[in-house]
Amino acid sequence: CHWGDNRIEFDVDQLGRVDLLMVPADDQEHILDLAETDDLIARVKPRIVLPTHYHIPGLTAPTAHLGDITRWLSGQEHVRNIEGNECTLTRDLLPAAPQVWVFSAPS
């Protein structure tokens, strides 16, 4: 599920089972505030959370006015750093417990 620029009012019960949730999570709270992001994750209960809409040094244009995710990540359990900027995900690679996956900036 790619949450995109949606606000929190959406009825998440309509989504059904979600394995991967791509959710905006920048520390400047550009789309959702941090509490709304965490509430959404708790309601959807994905196996993997992939933060989006945040500043990545060397990748994001300064004119985007996005914050990083340092503050948000500090409150997350089970953060997995993914080397590079892509991965292949299959059902057998889904973690048993929820995880936050963060891609590194391309070099």
List the main descriptive attributes of the protein structure presented here.
single chain, alpha/beta, four-stranded parallel sheet, 2 helices, 107 residues
Structure in a nutshell:
The protein contains two helices and four strands, in the order E-H-E-H-E-E. With 107 residues, the chain is an alpha/beta fold.
Commentary on this structure:
By secondary structure, the chain is α/β, with parallel strands linked by helices. It has helices at residues 34-44, 70-74; strands at residues 20-24, 48-52, 79-82, 99-103. The mean pLDDT is 87.
Low confidence ranges = none
N-to-C SSE string, H for helix and E for strand = EHEHEE
For the largest beta-sheet, the strand count, sense and barrel status come to: 4 strands, parallel
Strand residues, percent: 15-25%
Overall geometry comes to globular
Our count of helices gives 2
Number of strands: 4
Q: Based on helices, strands and strand pairing, what is the structural class? A: alpha/beta
Write the layout of secondary structure elements.
Elements: E1 20-24, H1 34-44, E2 48-52, H2 70-74, E3 79-82, E4 99-103
Parallel strand pairs: 1-2, 2-4, 3-4
